[in-house]
Amino acid sequence: MDVFRSAVRSVLCYAAPCWGWREHGGAERVQLMFIRRLFRLPRFAPNYILHLETGLNTVSEFTLEALFGYRLRVARLQDSRLPRIVVREVIGKNVSWARHLDHLSTELDVHNHLDSLDCKMIRAQADALLREFKKSKREQF
Q1: For 3, 56, 76, 82, which has the most beta carbons within 10 A of its beta carbon?
Q2: Superkingdom of the source (predicted)?
């Protein structure tokens, strides 16, 4: 699994915070294909068994964590830095990943603190949203 995390997932999720958080079926299929081949499992092995047995997060969970990590790094920057200015514009116009996070927050009934670039608020939202997202994923399995 370390090979997947270091080689495959790093390429698969390259710049994930920039292209925004979305669930990509193709990315999930790559991960599941890798697990099946690694353990020499048949194609018809249920996906939920693969996730439960390996304990590996889905790619969408990983990219959501990466997006919050990006927001935390940007929140620590000075107001004059371009990444911080861009994040404020994305949030202000509710486009790209900001719109997706807004919909996800609404769907999972988690209070949305997108307009804040305060590290404590971002951490609180990240913890709540990730917890509810992982819970909803596990319920789908």
Answers
A1: 56
A2: Eukaryota
Question: Which of the listed residues 16, 34, 59 is the one where a domain comes to its end?
Answer: 59
Instruction: Please check whether residues 51 and 113 belong to one and the same domain.
Output: no
Please tell me whether residues 34 and 75 are part of one structural domain: no
What distance lies between CA 126 and its chain's CA centroid?
10
Long-range contacts of 35-41 (CB under 8 A, 24+ apart): 35/4, 38/1, 38/4
Between the alpha carbon of residue 107 and those of residues 12, 121, 138, the distances in Å are 26, 19, 16
Domain that includes residue 96, residue range: 60-140
Is residue 111 within 8 Å of residue 93, measured between CB atoms?
A: no
CA 122 to CA 22: how far, in whole Å?
19
